Amino acid sequence: MNPSITPRVPLFHSGDQVDSAPPQAPQPFRLPPTFGIPNTGPLVSGSLLRSLTVTLPRPPVSEPANAGSSGVWPSIRAAPGGQTSSFHSLLATWRRDSGVTYPGLPSGGFTHTTPPSAPGKPPTDVQKDTSTSLHSVKDRIPATLNPPTCVALPNSLPHPPTDGNNRSVSWPIAPAFPALTQTAPQPVAPTFPAPAADKLPAPPEPVERNEKEEADSEPEIEYEVETILDRELRNGQPYYLIKWKGYAETDNTWEPLECLNCPDLLREFLAQRSAKAGTKSGKRKTKAKPTLSALSMTALPTLPSQPSRESSVREATGASPAASTAPKAVKPALVKTVKVVTADASDKAIRPKAAGVRKAHRATRPPPQRRHALHRGLEAIMAAPLKPNIQAFLALVRNAQGPPISVVNDVDDEGPPTDFTYVDHLIYTAGVPQPDRDALCGCQCPRGCAREFPGRCACRHQDGDEFPYDHNGRVVIEPGYLIVECNSKCACGPECPNRVVQRGMQVKLEIFKTPHKGWGVRAKQTIPKGTFISEYAGEILTFAESLRRGEEYDNIGRTYLFNIDHETADDEDPEYTVDAYHYGNVTHFFNHSCEPNLAVYPVLIDHPHVALHRLAFFATRAIAKGEELTFDYHTDRTGVDAESDGGTGDGVSSVSNDSKLTLQLKCMCGAKKCRGALHAV
Ligand SMILES: C[S@@+](CC[C@H](N)C(=O)[O-])C[C@H]1O[C@@H](n2cnc3c(N)ncnc32)[C@H](O)[C@@H]1O
């Protein structure tokens, strides 16, 4: 799968958002894979060997939940001291003010709350969770509910800035979707042929760099490698002659090893080369001379952080046969001036112009001698066959949505869990209501739900009015608050900035074997704070079924159960639980840390019933490449560290506060503030 080349969803052209366009009727659009939830029917449980119980935070006040709403709208709870007003009066105000008819509204029972404190702040007087769950996401107190007039946006949408040559470089309203909003810089060499329209390189991924780098560097662009034609050493460093997919032979370029991200092709090339060397020993290859046009696209050297590990080279190549046969190379920033560079160009000559990038990569580059040794090691690894356990794991994650997931095991020979099937969606098991899309309510913002005009989007009014995402698609509301994303009934299209979780995972991750916690997951790129990571996928069970399975899982001290209890009062059991033991995605492998870097948010997308909201992991701080991704199994509130919220109780609750916590599972997170035990059973 190659999201940077083939968008997963049809994209609306930004030009659609013209000022004078009349309001349009909601248009049907194809949803990304994660949007659709296939009905897989009841599942047959296999042997149950592990368990994890994770609980969402509960609402601050045990107000009766949405009585009489037929489960159509999510109930919004009153905060302590907050005022409620009936849905009927709101609806009357809304209809009076907007004239908008809103299909599928409940007949009654919907209440909203005016919070006693500033919007966006979590409640401070939450009670402690006494369940056996590991994690909770706290209910959100909605902000003031303005009449949700969903009308066309005014003629003030920002226009894309230009780079001085009248080329659009970004569209500030929704840079979270760069395929739509960002124009790749073009090489200025007059001889450089433009690729066919359908072969245009996709823009960079939104979370490839840290914010400092983003600010002062050129965007990194990925191009697809068609074939590797040749290899030669330049100053002892291997370079490969690349035929780019969609480009003519005259555009072939020589690229250093670290710029290539096509392990299958490399392996194939090296195998063929060594076979040839066996038959034609002694015959030297002629050095190919790069052409001017080929060199007008220069490469940004990025040495893999751990080049001696399998992680650098062993990647699943995605779901589609196309992806597996045509891996891609990291073909970074295009340089805007033509440089005449000879075949033995030094590193310096081929570096991009952006000062920030140059500095960043200089810092990570080892001295030349060491670099050459690393390259030789890397090539040797590539030429070697994969270990069977890694092969099996890569086969398991091959169909994962999003960027390819790599797998590393430097600890032992363990392979993937044998009783686990990789799925990126939720599976509705017996007794769990499927999403009823007819009962969904959508907003009527035909030109997108702009963050600048939250009061105009009906979806925002289910969610306290605050727009959950910034212009980069990063979450800005506090952990534990409900996110209501736009859905298939909304008039806005898939480019709407209020659709982040439903677009699926965009970050590069690696599953790796830890010494003491089983498998874990780490970042293969820097991840800015607020970035959506992935959704907790698996089977949705009734609570009764989760109890039954939980007992079995507890016996082996492993837990994969995550309660959906955002709406559940402290003294109640949740209605449903997600079980990722047998079915799940990369989040199945997320370990616990007492000082985590992820938080779980409840997200409502395509299910009208808040008791069946989804669970989305977001980065709570900037995460470095190579850092393990963890969340706090015992965060029964918001995922915010207890001390960072002033000890108000909105963050991590203490182990000692939960009578059911045991020291059965020793925590191996290694954090300075490790509490010593996992809230596992
Ligand atoms: C959701 S699974 C995480 C993935 C798991 N490591 C695996 O290999 O499948 C939860 C289990 O991982 C282990 N685990 C997670 N975090 C841990 C930690 N900080 N210390 C010790 N064990 C941990 C425990 O066995 C726990 O029940």
TrEMBL record:
Domain Pre-SET: start-end pairs: 441-504
GO molecular function: histone H3K9 methyltransferase activity; zinc ion binding
Occurrences of domain SET (ranges): 507-634
GO cellular component, one term: chromosome
Keywords on record: Chromosome, Metal-binding, Methyltransferase, Nucleus, S-adenosyl-L-methionine, Transferase, Zinc
Chain ranges of the Chromo domain: 223-281
Biased composition (Low complexity): 316-328
UniProt-annotated stretches for the region Disordered: 1-28, 102-147, 186-221, 275-328, 352-371
Chief location bin: nucleus
Amino-acid biosynthesis is among the record's keywords: no
One GO term (biological process): methylation
Alphabetized InterPro entries for the sequence: Chromo-like_dom_sf (IPR016197), Chromo/chromo_shadow_dom (IPR000953), Chromo_domain (IPR023780), Chromodomain_CS (IPR023779), H3K9_Histone-Lys_N-MTase (IPR050973), Post-SET_dom (IPR003616), Pre-SET_dom (IPR007728), SET_dom (IPR001214)
Basic residues: bias regions: 356-371
Domain Post-SET: 663-679
Subcellular location: Chromosome; Nucleus
Keyword Transmembrane helix belongs to the record: no
Annotated protein name in UniProt: Uncharacterized protein
